[in-house]
């Protein structure tokens, strides 16, 4: 995991890690992922789909 964290830091990629024993965090992450997927696919045009 350390190599992954170092690579993210080098590439200036924010890394969000869920805390253990906090199941309420998972619902927030799942919601964020759903919104991201919906917005991503809504913004794709048919020309960009391969």
Provide a descriptive summary of the structure in words:
The protein is mostly helical. It has one domain. 58% of the residues lie in helices and 0% in strands. The chain contains two helices and no strands.
A few lines on this structure:
By secondary structure, the protein is mainly alpha-helical.
End-to-end separation in angstroms reads: 33 Å
Based on CA atoms alone, the radius of gyration comes out at: 15 Å
The percent range for strand residues is: under 5%
Please write the string of helix (H) and strand (E) elements. Answer: HH
Based on helices, strands and strand pairing, what is the structural class? mainly alpha
Query: How many individual domains?
Result: 1
H/I helix tally: 2
The beta-strand count equals 0
Quaternary structure annotation: single chain
Bulk shape: flat
Assign a percent range to the helix content. Answer: 55-70%
Low-confidence stretches: none
Q: Strand count, sense and closure of the main sheet?
A: none
């Amino acid at each position: 995991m350390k190599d992954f964290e170092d690579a993210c830091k080098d590439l200036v990629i924010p890394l969000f890690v869920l805390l253990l024993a906090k199941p309420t965090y998972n619902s927030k992450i799942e919601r964020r992922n759903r919104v991201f997927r919906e917005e991503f696919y809504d913004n794709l045009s048919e020309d960009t789909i391969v």
